[in-house]
Amino acid sequence: MRTRLLAEIGAMGAVPGDGSEARLRKAAADCGYRVPALARLLGISTRQLTRAFKAQLRCLPGAWLRAARLQEARRLLRAAESVKMVAYSVGYRYESQFCRDFKAYFGHTPSADLLDTPLLDGCCPRGCAPSRK
User: Fold this and answer.
1) Is 124 domain-assigned?
2) % of the chain beyond a pLDDT of 70
3) What's the rounded Cα separation, in Å, for the pair 127 and 84?
4) Measured distance CA(46)–CA(118) in Å, rounded
5) What angle do CA 41, 84, 33 make, to 5 degrees?
6) Which pTM does this prediction carry?
7) What separation in angstroms does the CA of 80 have from each of 40, 56, 123, 126?
8) Residue 35 falls within a domain, yes or no?
9) N or C terminus: fewer CB in 10 A for the chain?
10) At what angle do helices 61-77 and 46-57 cross, to 10 degrees?
11) At 95, is the secondary structure helix, strand, or coil?
12) Is pLDDT of 57 > 60?
């Protein structure tokens, strides 16, 4: 697994859209979006992981993991009932920190995404769907 994921880090920089990023995102989620845990999964040091990310993706693993975590949170908000549930599901201990990180990354609060998501996916043409509050 170590060699395959390291190769996928390299492939992400060279061949976007080949599925490498999805596999690396899954590994990141399995590791709780933590750099040391991802390095352990790959069987390398955090320093080696940092060098691989900088060489192939031109970013630090922590920044990439933070972005992957917040993008997963945004995806989950489409089907979630609460921001708190999403925050905990992507590994945040505190909803307030999740909201700060989300707003810093996307420019708006997670509740704005939650409220913008159609409750019934457009099956109620007159806007008669109940509020999520």
Assistant:
1) no
2) 73
3) 26
4) 41
5) 15
6) 0.74
7) 31, 34, 18, 23
8) yes
9) C
10) 80
11) helix
12) yes
